[in-house]
Amino acid sequence: MNSPTVLAPAARTSEPAPATRVPLHALRLPGGYSLRLHRRAVAVCAVLTAALSAAVVWTLTTGDFPLAVSDVLDVLSGGGARADRYIVMELRLPRVLTAVLVGAALGVAGSLFQSVARNPLGSPDVIGFTLGSATGALLVILVIGGSAATVAGGAVAGGLLTSLLVYLLARSGSAQGYRLVLVGIGVSSLLASVNDYLIARASFSDAAGAAVWLTGSLNARGWEHCVPMAAVLALLLPAALLLGRPLRLLEMGDDAAASLGARPDRLRLWLVLVGVGLTAAATAAAGPIPFVALVAPQAVRRLTGATGPNLAGSAVLGALLLVLSDLAAQRLLAPTQLPVGVLTGVLGGCYLVWLIARQWRTGRG
Question: Of 118, 162, 174, 215, which is most buried with the most CB atoms under 10 A?
């Protein structure tokens, strides 16, 4: 089921499902439990995971000091020459792992928000949550000052306050998902102006650093960025997976979800909090990287053909998209390293134009 753009209140999130039966497999678990698996979705996740592993190894071999795949594998297994260990473990591995974790967080957050809003434009970078995190971080960088941990705290606080404002403004009335997207777009425009003001009033050196941070970048990322991001994912990703089943009920509409025993308002609040936490952590680690959260969930849904939020697939594809985008921005497209947000912004903008044009041609725009 594909959703119309924000111009249609009765929006849904995906393309109409084909008329074929969905191949499911029941996995028996100890204790009398069972787990239903979508075979095509499992196959797609396996292929994407293999592609992600290959992309990570490829990234570790490239750079000013190229390494053979065998040398990289020796280092990862605990051996290798001292110079190779330094290049891989201190320079390249923290950066690529940060890309994996940030991409996975954005993919899951985008899937959650698009399912809550029942609209393909309901991603955190469109409805303002990413910009809210960026505003909180900019206030710390340009006004308060502080360490990287303080900047991360500012990003989390900014994202939470923005989500609370958007949620409260969009809470009343019918077509709540439609209101969430529209209110989020309005708040996003306001926050963009606030960010521009903060940069305009700052000193030249501070403004230059903030402008680079606002593009979204993985340059100079180390273990001090990777480890906190891993801790956040270890906490919030299981929470998102536990909320996946009731989220399927919420996608059917509030009335249907309530009749099946769910509490739509409470469930929506928890989903927003988890999604905002993932978005804020990703923004704190790498800056506001656009459009990964928009593209990954929709691409996964088209690949798998499965209904529901597809959280695992969105996480893996989000990580793959960000790793490949960063590799292209570093090595393939320019003589110097570009911020990865520049490339994802271009690709995501093209996808957004295609999505809106497609909705318009099919009469759902």
Answer: 162
